[in-house]
Amino acid sequence: FNSNLQGLDSDGGGCCDGDIGEVRDVIGRIPCKGDLYLGIFGLSVLSRLCLIRGILTAISRDLLNAHFSGVSGVKTVLYDGVLPELCRHCENPVDSHFNFHALTVMQICLQQIKTSLLSNLTDLSGEYEPIPEEMGMRILKIIWNNLEDPLSQTVKQVHLIFDLFLDIQFSLCEGGDRIKEFLVKIGSDLLSLGSRCKGRYV
Q1: pLDDT digits (tens, 9 = 90+) for 156-168
Q2: Per DSSP, which regions of the chain are E strands?
Q3: Are 61 and 116 a contacting pair, CB within 8 Å?
Q4: Using an 8 Å Cβ cutoff, are 193 and 200 in contact?
Q5: Partners of 74 in beta bridges
Q6: 113 Cβ partners below 8 Å, 6+ apart?
Q7: Which long-range contacts (CB under 8 A, 24 or more apart) does 8-13 make?
Q8: pTM score > 0.90 for this model?
Q9: Is residue 108 within a helix (H) or strand (E), and if so which, with residue range?
Q10: Which residues on adjacent β-strands are paired with residue 75?
Q11: Are 103 and 154 in contact (CB under 8 A)?
Q12: What is the CA radius of gyration of the chain?
């Protein structure tokens, strides 16, 4: 997460939704011997994935969606920390077992995003774009790459991810030409997969 949330204002002045000082106080009360950051950095890939899942399920949506000032503009834990990290894991799975778990956590992440949007917890004001076009294309590519996975449970996860991502895009686009362009992109991608890809018909 450090690379995705780099530039976080260290003196607490950059937080737009809440007091970063309070967050730092809470972190300071975590009973941990040694350096917490180095401990996380040294985790195995699967352990890091479990940590992300814990963050998504244990941390409130308010905090996941809270805006922080970064070197490249506004950042959030959910969209700029968790989502890119999950994409990286789904794009480079170490094996089929890990791939299934990475997609499961991706589904949890997208469910949190969908709920956040429906609950108006995601601040869409200003120039902040929670899911830029490039990120959307990464998610679609992950879906297409797993349509023909030999494990049926992995394919089911991909279908859930696809449904959630469609709902998210409809919420973000709010109708109009943008959602039409997105649906055309999906149709074009599916056609380019070829007739041998049976998963595209599902």
Answers
A1: 999 999 999 999 9
A2: 68-70, 73-75
A3: yes
A4: yes
A5: 69
A6: 78, 79, 83, 122, 130, 131, 164, 168
A7: 8/68, 8/69, 8/70, 8/75, 9/68, 9/69, 13/69
A8: no
A9: helix 96-118
A10: 68
A11: yes
A12: 18
Per-chain mean pLDDT for the chain: 83
Burial degree of 30 (CB within 10 A; 0-12, 13-18, 19+): exposed
The size of the chain, in residues, is 202
Phi and psi at residue 86, in whole multiples of 5°?
A: -65, -40
Beta bridge partners of 73: 70
pLDDT in tens, 168-194: 999 988 767 888 888 898 888 888 887
Q: Report residue 77 as tokens.
A: 């834990």
d(CA 109, CA 78): 8
pLDDT band, very low/low/confident/very high, at 5 (cuts 50, 70, 90): very low
